[in-house]
Amino acid sequence: MKAVAPPPRPRRAGRSNPAGVALLMVITSIAILAIIVVEFANAARTHLDQGLNLRDEARATALADTALVMTRACLDKEIWGPAGAFTAKLDMERVCNIVLGIFARGRVDVPGVGLSMELPGVQGIGIEKGEIEEIKLVSEGSAIGLAGLRCPSLAAAVVAGDTSVAQQPGQATCPSRTMTANLLRNLLCDGALNDVFEKEHDDGHRYTREDIITNLVDWVDPDDNKIALTTTWQFEYGIGENEDAYWKSHGADYKVKDMGFDSIEELRLIPGVNDQLYDVLVRNVSVFGAAGSGKIDVNQASESLIAKLLRSVSPLGTAVEGATCGQKQDLGIAPQGFENRDPMDALFDIWARMVVQAREVLRHPLLHPESLVAPPFRNPNKFIDVVKDPLKYLMELSPNADANIMLAVYGINETQYRSLQGFFANAQQLKPMLDTKSQLYRLQAQATVGNITRRVTAILKRDTGKVRTLYYREE
C-alpha cells in the first residue's frame, strides 16, 4: 500500500520569518547609509570646490591687482630715478606695455613689426596654472572728454556769487564747451541712433540730440540756470528756467549734481540716456580729466574720433552734418566702408583713415626707430602737419610708388587729393583741441586661475610725479 505524505502544518497567524525581517532591515539600513554617505560626499565636495574657488578667486584677483601695481610703478616718475624727467618725452603707453609684457608673460613684444622675443629663464609673474590673459594700457585722453563741458571761468564766477553771467550774451560757453559739444554732436549724428531720438523713452518723454548735450552740460556746470542750444548750435541760458524743475518735468526724482562726473556709470542718471545711448557713450567718452580741458590725445585717438575732430573745425563739415544729421543716403557706388553716406561727409572719414595710417608710418620702428619709445606726434603741430598732407607720410612706405596707386586704396586720385587739401587748410584751428602728452591712462587687466577669471579696470593719473588711482572696478 502506497504511503501518503502528511498534510503541511498550518502556519500560526502573526508569526514571521526572523531571517527575512533581518535581511530587510539590513538592506534598508544600507540604503539609508548610502544616501547619507552620498549626501555627505556631495556636501564635502561642494565645500571643497567652494574652497578651491575662493582660493582661485583670491589668486586671480591678486594677479590682476599686481598688474595694476606694476603699471603704477611704471608710470611713476620717482621710480625711474634720474631718468624720471626723461619720461615726459616717452610714449608711456608703449613703454609700459612692453614692461608689462615682460612682467606678465616673460617675453618682449615689439609693437609695429609683430616681433615677439621670449626671455630665457624669465617666467613672468603668475601662479601655477594661472595666467594674465590680457593686460593693456591706453590713454584715457583718446576719448571725448566730458570735463570739457565744464567751463572753469563760469564756475568760478558762480562760486564767487556772480550770477550776472546768466544774463550776459555769449557768457554761456567757453572754447572747451564748444569743442566738446561739437564732438558730441558728431557722435550723436549717427543714423543708427535715430530710434533713440524718434521714440518715447520709458519716462514718457522724447529727447532730441540737443537735449542730451544740454542735459550733460547742466549736470556738470555749477549754476541753476537751464542751458539751451540755438538752431545754430550756440549755447545760451534759458529764460526763467531752473535746472531741477526741468529735471523733474522729465521724470527724474533727483537734483542735478552741478559738479563733474566721478564715474562713467553716472551717465545713467542723465535724462534721455537710455541703454542704447549709454552703450554708445561709454565706448566713446571719458568722464575723467581736468575741468575745461576736453582735449583729445591724437596719439591714441581712433579713426572715427579723428574724423569728428576734422569735421568740427571745417565749415563744410558743419554744414554737411547739419543737413544730414541722423540721415543715411544711398550713394550707389561709394568707397568701401562708406556706403550710405553723404559724399562730402565720407571725405572726412577717408581723410581720417589716411591720417591714422600715416600715424602708423610714424610708429614704424624700421622707418622711425625712435618710435619704440617716443610718440608719433610729439606736439600738436606735428599732427596738424600730417592732417594737411597725410600722403607725404604714406609715401614713406614706398617712396618710388605712384601716388595715384597709393591713393586708389582710399577711392580717390591725386587730383582729387590736392583739391581736398583745401578743406583742411585751416587745420591750425585744431590746436586748442589737441593733446599729445596725456596724463590719464586706462589699465585693463584680466587674470584667470582655474575656473575663475577676474578683470580689473582702473583710471590712473600722473600728477606732479605721483600716480593716483581715480577709478577702480573689479569684475
Molecular structure report:
By secondary structure, the protein is of the alpha+beta class. It folds into three domains: 124 residues, Pantoate--beta-alanine Ligase, Chain: A,domain 2; 141 residues, Orthogonal Bundle (Ribonucleotide Reductase Protein R1, domain 1); 137 residues, no CATH class. Helices cover 41% and strands 15% of the residues. It contains 15 helices and twelve strands. It has a four-stranded antiparallel beta sheet, covered by helices on one side. The chain has a two-stranded antiparallel sheet with strand order 1-2. Strands 4-7 form a two-stranded parallel sheet. Strand 11 and strand 12 form a beta hairpin. Helix 1 runs antiparallel to helix 2, helix 4 packs antiparallel against helix 6 and helix 4 packs across helix 9. The longest helix has 58 residues. It is globular and about 125 Å long.
Structural class: alpha+beta
CATH superfamily of the largest domain: EpsJ-like
Strand content: 5-15%
Unreliable sequence segments:
329-341
Number of strands: 12
Total individual domains:
3
Estimate percent helicity.
40-55%
Number of helices: 15
Describe the structure concisely.
By secondary structure, the protein is an alpha+beta fold. The chain has helices at 18-75, 92-105, 152-159, 175-188, 194-198, 209-220, 243-249, 275-284, 303-313, 315-324, 343-362, 380-388, 390-394, 403-408, 414-420, and strands at 107-110, 115-118, 130-139, 144-145, 225-229, 235-242, 285-286, 296-297, 434-435, 440-449, 452-463, 466-474. The protein has three domains: 56-142 and 438-474, Pantoate--beta-alanine Ligase, Chain: A,domain 2 (2-Layer Sandwich), CATH 3.30.1300; 151-291, EpsJ-like (Ribonucleotide Reductase Protein R1, domain 1, Orthogonal Bundle); 301-437, no CATH class.
